[in-house]
Request: fold
Amino acid sequence: MRDEAIPAATIILLRDAPRFEVLMVARHEDISFAGGAMVFPGGRVDPGDGDGAWREHSTGLHEDRAIAAAQVAAVREAFEEVGVLFARDAHGAFISGARTAALTDMRVVIEANDAEFLAMIRRERVTLACDAMHMFSHWVAPPGMHKRFNTLFFAARFPAGQAVLEDGNEATESVWITPHEAISARDRGERKIIFPTARNLDLLTVSSRVDEVFEFAARRPIRPITPQVAVRDGETFLTIPTDMGYPVVEEPLSTSGRV
Reply:
């Protein structure tokens, strides 16, 4: 039986005002992977995300086809889950909140058929703003998990003027929160945040502004991280490499999916 990780993508949407915050959503309790957990918008890469036609409808699409498909997937998932469309109009400005809201009925259509996303972008004559997405991290779940994902995380500034509207299906709640507050809520048992999300929140705490996130991501090595299990003094830990810039590199396995 093959245990190949499923390609996935996540977009970490950030803002500076009223303070440095990240957008997180609560996944529906009944979803098989990370049900009830607070996550960044994202999901698996669908076949249409790799369509070569995206080259004509995107700015800054990566040369690597797998990374390019992940960029498209991250934008599509953000639109489906929280109603945010990371795209620019013909004048190069991010599309307005009013225009995005007018497209909200398309979210369920695209969720049912990912090819409809490209069709909508063509009709609207807008361009995906992949040039404003910054590679942030790359995580690959270890073998043997029920669902195993190979996930690229991108960081981006939230498009001004747009509004967040969770879909009520995959995402049941959305919240703007500081990375420190999200980690604290997890530590207090108030929020379920799985290990990879928690570690990426730790990485956000290194910065105090959105631009600093991008600058830090550009300076540090970004390569696939697969958590490993280590046992010391009878206690089992989940660990990651120590040279990737993460402030926290291990956690007791008993708390890695902490509620």
About this structure: The chain has a mean pLDDT of 91. The CA atoms of residues 60 and 131 lie 4 Å apart.
